[in-house]
Write a structure and sequence with these properties.
The protein is α/β, with parallel strands linked by helices. It has one domain: Protein-Tyrosine Phosphatase, Chain A (Alpha-Beta Complex), CATH 3.90.190. It has 11 helices and 7 strands. The protein has a 5-stranded mixed sheet with strand order 1-4-7-5-6. The protein has a two-stranded antiparallel sheet with strand order 2-3. The protein is globular. The termini are far apart.
Length: 254
């Protein structure tokens, strides 16, 4: 089974997410909303930030669906080689602003490499390496800060799991989402909504090794951020972002 087929198998489970949050695209995968989450200052808005797997195979119909959904900003987090061999298509549509910011040049979810067999520490190290790239994070959130009222920003990597997961974590942390909510959103890429919510919000024990490793990785990263910076907002400020830019991004999602 090829890499793309494995991602589709992981994602195409009907019980994964409530219909309002999962965007059904025949030629896309792991395309989902950050809207509808209860946070400190309210509820995150729909059609403001969407996370996704790769867009290079999007059909013309699915490109139009995303465009009609409001997508006007597209952020590609993949490495230089990934982009050179599989460029996004939606960026060609009129009025769409595109930004390429390589966050990390290794796909941590490539099943052909057997990286999960190395344990959660491998993912933790990869995520912390991404977060140490302050310049890339600054560019990402500076791009988000250009979003105007009514525009939706879509951000993606190859599978929409790791690099995309870190940016989703930072966005949700910026608007005051609980650690439990951040962990759950990250883990929806690796398990069904019912399975993840049962573990994160009801204290059930994970029965699958993959999900156990992922839970360990994301919770460790959140702990490190809190220990090192005090909050995700302070971390983002340390990356060189201004309070005004962060308030714009926060206001766009809330």
């Amino acid at each position: 089974m090829g890499l793309r087929e494995r991602w589709r198998e992981l994602w195409n489970r009907p019980e994964d997410l409530e219909p309002a949050r999962k965007l059904e695209l025949a030629s896309g995968y792991n395309v989902r909303e950050l809207g509808g989450y209860a946070v400190e200052r309210g509820v995150t808005l729909y059609r403001r930030f969407v996370r996704s797997g790769g867009l290079d195979m999007l059909s013309t119909q699915d490109q139009r669906r995303l465009y009609d959904y409001g997508v006007r900003l597209v952020l590609d987090l993949r490495g230089e080689h990934e982009v050179s061999v599989a460029a996004d298509k939606i960026q060609r549509m009129p009025g769409v602003r595109f930004c390429h910011v390589p966050l990390f040049d290794i796909d941590l979810s490539d099943p052909s490499l057997g990286l999960d067999e190395l344990g959660g520490s491998y993912h933790t190290l990869g995520y912390l390496t991404m977060l140490a790239n302050h310049d890339a994070v600054r560019k990402v959130f500076s791009f988000f800060a250009t979003a105007e009222e009514g525009e939706c920003a879509l951000f993606h990597c190859a599978a929409g799991m790791d690099r995309t997961g870190m940016i989703a974590m930072l966005l949700l942390g910026l608007v005051g989402a609980s650690n439990e909510r951040i962990v759950a959103d990250y883990c929806y890429s690796f398990g069904s909504c019912a399975e993840v919510d049962g573990i994160v919000f009801k204290g059930k024990q994970p029965v699958r090794r993959e999900l156990e490793l992922r839970l360990d990785a994301i919770t460790t990263v959140l702990d490190r951020l809190e220990e090192g910076y005090g909050s995700i907002e302070r971390y983002l400020l340390s990356c060189g972002l201004t309070p005004q830019a962060l308030e714009h991004v926060r206001g766009h999602l809330l």
